[in-house]
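Input (structure):
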């Protein structure tokens, strides 16, 4: 195989946007990478792929898949061909995400205080009160700087015509940023000249931005706030990310057993005695955060932490109760939130979404289920999802029965033909479906979005499911400076 065979006979899939090709021509922003990779002998590319795999292995860049109750730790698959986004495309994405997060922050403040949007019929009140992640315990609680969403991972996909759509708003404990950072470091190792030659914007500033935002959330009575990262522990699927971020920010990584609440204040146990904690970047879900208030069997959280939070003695990132804005049924109303709170038209579109709690929409979906993706409103990671075009009749019938038991808990969307990007598979460039999760950081001084994000890849041929838990991988994501 010669060097130029890499992209030879690269198949273009009909009615699908290809990130590298515009019909038969290489898009201008991919041309340099196309030329560079085409000039590298195939055996050398394979060696680079093997080097990347070895670096992931040696650095412990892993995630955990749970199957039959057992946690199986796996190396996160990495594709060596980067995904490239132009400066103008990124400008659209950045403006759209900032607009969306401004509206969602205002909605969260509203829903836990005056509830104007519910009274005005912008969002149905019964939809909110039936949401399992709407926490009455947060009603009337003021959060620092009125910021609820400090960290967001907004999932974007691209339809056949190149239009970006928001797939999900991840506003609770979004994961994946460590893979974004590590993907860039691996790319620097295997292609040291490509990044500066292509004027790729950096992503390494993410930990510093996050750290500064966390420090700014302290109640201001101490000159050097104590910030910690609260992890569920080593068996969590994203534990690698927790350790990585704590190390890069220079803060303590703690578990629930390392903290204690006294007199409505949170303290960390140290060899020198108790030390007060001012800010907690928590990666523990609401349900397990405080066994005195939520799940009484939880051993992951801290008894009394919600009391300290309500009194303003500790800041928690992301805010408790964000899940109400993360509900896939509430997602439907985000464009209306933008118009209501900001008096602006949405920059980024929603995917058309059917709420199965509505009888007419449910009837339409059940009749056309082979053309639909049906999801549970509060599941993540690709679990609890039916891909109608790929499911068997038996699977569809079983899923219909589940829908009819609790229709409020399901939404449906038409199957979107996710965009393709070339991936290095078996020594050839082959198209695979991708999405994009940019990471936004909201602080007292505004919203910052690191230019890049996590591009997830459906490595199985023909698959539309990019989640790592379902066999997906990732790519380095380049945003060009010009």
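Output (sequence):
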């Amino acid at each position: 195989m010669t060097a130029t065979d890499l992209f030879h006979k690269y198949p273009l899939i009909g009615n699908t946007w290809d990130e590298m090709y515009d019909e038969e021509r290489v898009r201008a922003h991919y041309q340099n990478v196309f030329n560079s990779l085409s000039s590298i002998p195939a055996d050398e590319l394979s060696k680079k792929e093997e080097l990347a795999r070895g670096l992931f292995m040696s650095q412990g860049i892993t995630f955990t898949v749970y199957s039959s109750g057992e946690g199986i730790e796996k190396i996160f698959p990495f594709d060596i061909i980067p995904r490239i986004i132009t400066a103008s495309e990124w400008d659209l994405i950045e403006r759209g995400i900032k607009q969306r997060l401004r509206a969602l922050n205002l909605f969260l403040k509203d829903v836990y205080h005056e509830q104007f949007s519910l009274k005005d019929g912008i969002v149905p009140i019964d939809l909110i009160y039936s949401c399992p992640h709407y926490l009455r315990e947060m009603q009337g609680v003021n959060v620092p700087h009125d910021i609820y969403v400090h960290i967001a991972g907004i999932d974007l996909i691209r339809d056949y015509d190149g239009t970006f759509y928001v797939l999900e708003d991840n506003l609770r404990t979004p994961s994946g940023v460590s893979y974004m950072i590590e993907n860039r470091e691996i790319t620097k190792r295997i292609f040291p000249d490509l990044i500066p030659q292509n004027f790729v914007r950096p992503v390494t500033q993410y930990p510093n931005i996050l750290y500064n935002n966390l420090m700014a959330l302290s109640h201001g009575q101490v000159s050097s706030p104590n910030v910690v990262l609260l992890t569920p522990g080593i068996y969590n699927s994203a534990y690698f990310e927790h350790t990585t971020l704590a190390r890069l920010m220079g803060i303590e990584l703690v578990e629930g057993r390392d903290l204690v609440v006294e007199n409505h204040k949170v303290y960390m146990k140290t060899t020198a005695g108790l030390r007060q904690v001012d800010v907690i970047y928590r990666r523990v879900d609401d349900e397990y955060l405080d066994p005195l208030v939520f799940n009484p069997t939880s051993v992951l959280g801290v008894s009394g932490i919600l009391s300290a939070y309500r009194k303003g003695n500790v800041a928690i990132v992301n805010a408790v109760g964000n899940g109400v804005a993360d509900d896939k049924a509430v997602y439907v109303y985000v464009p209306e939130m933008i118009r209501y709170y900001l008096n602006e038209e949405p920059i980024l579109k929603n995917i058309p979404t059917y709420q199965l709690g509505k009888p007419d929409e449910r009837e339409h979906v059940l009749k056309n289920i082979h053309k639909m993706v049906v999801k549970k409103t509060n599941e993540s990671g690709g679990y609890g999802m039916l891909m109608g075009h790929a499911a068997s009749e038996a699977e569809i019938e079983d899923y219909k029965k589940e829908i009819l038991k609790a229709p409020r808990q399901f939404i449906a969307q038409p199957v979107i033909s996710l965009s393709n990007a070339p991936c290095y598979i078996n020594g050839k460039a082959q198209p695979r479906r991708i999405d994009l999760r940019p990471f936004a950081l909201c602080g007292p001084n505004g919203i910052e979005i690191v230019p890049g994000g996590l591009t997830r890849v459906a490595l199985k041929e023909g698959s539309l499911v990019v989640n790592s838990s379902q066999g997906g991988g990732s790519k380095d994501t380049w945003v060009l400076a010009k």
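Notes: The chain has 15 helices and 25 strands. The first helix runs from residue 31 to 38.
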